[in-house]
Amino acid sequence: MKPVDNYFLNQKEPYQSIMLYVREVILNTLPDVVERYSYNIPFYNIGKKPMLYLNILKGRDYVDVAFVQGVLLEKDFPILKNDNKRKQVRSIQLKSIEDLDHEHFQELLCVAAEQIRQSKKAWFI
Fold it and tell me: What single DSSP character describes residue 11?
C-alpha cells in the first residue's frame, strides 16, 4: 500500500470520508495530476509543481483543501479563505462532504491547474 493510501485510511471520520471524496474529485477532474505523499500529507502536482494539498490542521475541526497559488485565485473564487495568515496559500475548509460545491470545485481545480502549468514555479512568495 502506498503511503498516501495509508494516510487516508488512518484518518478519523468524518475526515477520512471527506478526504477520500475530495481525492476522487481531483483525480477524476484532472487526469494529468500526480498524487504524491510529501511532508506527511497528500499533495497533488501538475508536472513537478505542487498545486494543492489536503491537511487537517491541529486544533481545527475541518479538512483543509489548500491551493498553493490560492492568493492568485481568491478574487475569482471567494470560497478560498486565508486561514492561518498564510502569504500565498488559500484554502477551502470542509466539515462535511456536503460543504463542497462539486461543480465550482471542479472549475476551481481546472483554473488552478492551468495557472500552475503557466507559472515558472509554484511557490513564488
Answer: S
